[in-house]
Design a protein that fits this description.
mainly alpha
Length: 135
């Protein structure tokens, strides 16, 4: 097979072009690799700096933080309870003003009436028990 001179020249030009492209890609790959390494080092450095800025708490400090959180929550609950007690006290004070306390004589009459009712109830209960026993 005879290869013409023109086609050999074209092949050599193609090979030369490919070599130039290969060299350019190799150079670019090397530059990209260096840039990647530089960026990785930068990220590592920034990460170390950020970690150095974060406070490292000891076990005692972490325990104290938990206790403070618990106390804070308890305080909130106690504040709510105190508000409820104040509200209850205001209501009781207002109610006491509207309905004054009974006098000693009135208390005696109420006790007597309650005792009468208690005696009647006991009498009825005893009658029921007696009726159940007979049946």
């Amino acid at each position: 097979a005879v290869v013409s001179t023109q086609s050999t020249g074209e092949l050599e030009e193609g090979i030369t072009g490919l070599r130039a492209d290969c060299f350019a890609l190799s150079t670019r790959s090397s530059a990209v690799s260096k840039r990647q390494q530089s960026l990785q080092e930068r990220v590592s450095r920034v990460t170390r700096e950020v970690q150095n800025l974060l406070p490292d708490l000891s076990d005692a400090e972490n325990s104290l933080r938990g206790e403070i959180t618990d106390l804070s929550e308890r305080t909130k609950c106690l504040k709510t309870d105190a508000e409820q007690l104040r509200s209850k006290m205001k209501f009781q004070t207002a109610t006491a003003r509207k309905f004054p306390a009974m006098t000693g004589d009135q208390q005696g009459r109420v006790k007597a009436i309650l005792q009468e009712n208690d005696d009647k109830i006991n009498s009825l209960v005893n009658k029921l028990k007696g009726a159940q026993i007979r049946t």
